[in-house]
Amino acid sequence: MKEHYYLISQLPDLSAASEKAALPITESYYRDVCSRFLDKAQAAVLDSLSLEPPKTKTATGSAFLDDWYEQERCLRYALAQVRAQKMKKDAGPVPVSCTADVVQAARTAVGMSSPLAAEQFLYEYRLGVLNRLQPLDSFSIDAVYAYGIRLLLVQRMRKFDKEKGSDSYHAIYDTILGETI
């Protein structure tokens, strides 16, 4: 516990970072700092930390991560199903563990007018899930993993650029039109 207290106290607050300012920490620095304080099993879990959950339920050794990955897996299945329904295709059933709020979040995101707005909505939804699952003990190993997930989420959102996205969309659209004419 003492090691986790010292580790977590070294990690900067991510909520204070503005959208335009550089993040106060990088993923590589986070992983480097954590590697100094974690045992082998915890470091292995940290090394596998990802925003993309395993397709099938796999125990990570962390109750928090197991719950996070299950919620993310459900969201991804729900998004796939809603998108498939929109195209009048069958994506199969959503897992039983998916709750109505997950399906509703997927429907809301798919129904948005722009992909960027949908991504921003999903980012906020994921942060809400993360806050709900956040361990009560702020100095536990699960709090270290939660910080890592939050960092990955913030980094992912910062990669979106409206101008680049619009340019890419128009290039793809023009290519498709050029092939069909």
What would you say this structure looks like, in words?
The chain has 181 residues and is mostly helical. It is built from eight helices and no strands. Helix 2 runs antiparallel to helix 7 (141-158), helix 5 (100-110) packs antiparallel against helix 6 and helix 6 packs antiparallel against helix 7 (141-158). The longest helix has 24 residues, at 63-86. It is globular and about 55 Å long.
Strand content: under 5%
Quickly count the helices. 8
The profile of the biggest β sheet is: none
The pLDDT mean sits at 88
Distance between the amino and carboxyl termini: 65 Å
Derived structural class: mainly alpha
- C-alpha Rg (nearest Å): 19 Å
Apparent shape = globular
Order of helices and strands: HHHHHHHH
Strands, count:
0
| Low-confidence runs of at least 5 consecutive residues | none
**Residues in helix, %:** 55-70%
Notable characteristics:
single chain; 181 residues; mainly alpha; 8 helices
List the topology elements.
Blueprint: H1 2-10, H2 27-35, H3 40-47, H4 63-86, H5 100-110, H6 115-133, H7 141-158, H8 162-180
Describe, in short, the structure shown:
With 181 residues, the protein is mainly α.
